[in-house]
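Q: Structure tokens for this one, please.
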Amino acid sequence: MEARPICFPPVKTITSKVLILGSFPSPLSFESGFYYGHPRNRFWPLLASLLGEPVPGTVEEKKALLVKRDIALWDVLDSCEIKGASDASIRSPVVHQIAPLIEGSAIRAVFFNGAKAEELFKRYNPPLGVPSFKMPSTSPANAAWGMDRLKESWKVILDYLV
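A: Here is the predicted structure, written as tokens:
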């Protein structure tokens, strides 16, 4: 078990319509300096495909895509003890309070990237007053879900971006 640094700050603008919440950044995300930094994580290719945009490569391109398409991004945990990138090993979680990020905002729905993000959120946060959806994880560890299946499931996000 190792203690990990504090999570990245949220990406959000006054026009953000949806919030995507992960559990906690992986070691490769910390190395790359931004969310979903593992080269095999399908988050950025999936999001780009759903939105009809090119896959962003740099941190600046990733932030620009989120801002352009009114998507907010954050993690449920601010810090924790974790073994590698294994959500199952999370101990001593320090949880973000998500409600203040949503209150008075344009956010219409919350999407949890994986079961652990939803579980941690529901254990430590009150209900938000907007619809929320547990989505299949884009992690490479979720090998049972190919890109086509992920895309079919995640396309519901488009309903909240109009």
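A few notes: The longest strand covers residues 77-82. The mean pLDDT is 91.
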